[in-house]
Design a protein that fits this description.
Length: 328
């Protein structure tokens, strides 16, 4: 591959590499925006960030970007989503406190990604803590959603066309103790993995110890100097995004078909050809029911590199599926 492509996000690099294997001409139109053009004969396609293509209509990403509209559309299609409410003003938090008191809840901005502004509160008791979490979420958006927390593990289902082609379980940024080194030292060591980098040019992102991690550790009385016991797993943040240092574990072959069909149904409901469906599942071997699973989010620009180069598991070669669907 041309060395100039190394400045692009890894997902785009992967797609370009497969395009060149198929003798497709590739033009990089905007390096910073990961915007490319594919040409073969009379066929021309424009692709941005590997998964934004002509396959999807303009409205589909707008639906997925708006979590409230997404939930509405999915619910109308008999797809399970968490119960909740949307706040337009921070002052509305107090009048909704009694509705969620004693429950496990998720508070999140309506339209942001990468886990920004998301806070999970267990067995809500304190109205001040509730208000502070709502205020924090409003720093990222003009509307905030409060939802029932769904127990289980989060899985990213990648839908291409009419098929779920990859599934990963994302684990939040973490370190495993050895009884000797501090969290800071363990992070430094984990970041030496050549698969970790910055800016999506590597399969995994480096773990950053910032205010989010500091606050999260503080909830359990830990700090960056804490020395975990041998084999003790210490999570550094609540959200499991690979973009914030999380690990990706491939589950494509372990997941029963029922859940794969639900992901495809969700994508079709919002009119998406390429879609990342985040589904919470309590038991992946149990037939789907409202208590065992819930879709918490749909993503209109899903990264493919996490499926091609998971922390654990095999390469799913998602780039081949995209080019096949584009007609190359």
């Amino acid at each position: 591959m041309n060395e100039n492509y190394s400045k692009l996000e890894l997902s785009t690099q992967i797609l370009i590499n497969e395009a060149l294997e198929r003798n497709i001409q590739v033009d990089v139109l905007d390096m910073d925006d990961n915007f490319i053009r594919l040409k073969k004969g009379d066929k021309v396609e424009y692709v941005k960030q590997a998964t934004k293509t002509s396959l999807d209509t303009y409205i589909a990403p707008l639906i997925m970007e708006n979590k409230e509209v997404t939930k509405m559309v999915l619910k109308e299609n008999n797809i399970n989503v968490p119960d909740g409410v949307t706040l337009k003003l921070p002052c509305e938090a107090k009048e909704n406190f009694s509705r969620f008191e004693g429950k496990d809840i998720v508070i999140k901005p309506k339209s942001t990604n990468f886990g920004k502004g998301v806070i999970i509160l267990k067995e809500l008791k304190n109205i001040e803590e509730f208000q502070n979490a709502v205020d924090h979420a409003f720093e990222y958006d003009s509307s905030v959603m409060i939802e029932r927390f769904i127990p289980g593990k989060e899985y990213r289902f990648l839908v291409i066309g009419d098929e779920t082609v990859g599934i990963i379980h994302r684990i939040p940024a973490n370190v495993v103790g050895d009884g000797i080194h501090s969290i800071t030292q363990l992070v430094e060591e984990k970041n030496k993995d050549p698969r970790r980098g910055k800016g999506y040019v590597k399969p995994l992102e480096k773990i950053i110890l910032g205010n989010v991690e500091k606050d999260y550790l503080g909830f359990s009385g830990k700090n960056f100097d804490y020395i975990p016991d041998k084999d003790e797993v210490v999570y550094l943040r609540e959200n499991s995004n690979v973009s914030t240092g999380g690990d990706s574990i491939d589950f494509t072959d372990k997941m029963i078909e029922d859940y794969k069909k639900i992901a495809v149904k969700a994508a079709k409901a919002v009119g998406a050809k390429i879609c990342g469906a985040d589904i919470i599942i309590n038991d992946i071997n149990e037939i789907p029911n409202d208590e065992n699973h819930s879709i918490i989010e749909l993503n209109f620009n899903p990264a493919i590199h996490m499926h091609d180069f998971p922390y654990e598991g095999e390469n799913r070669h998602i780039e081949k599926r995209i080019l096949d669907l584009l007609g190359y």
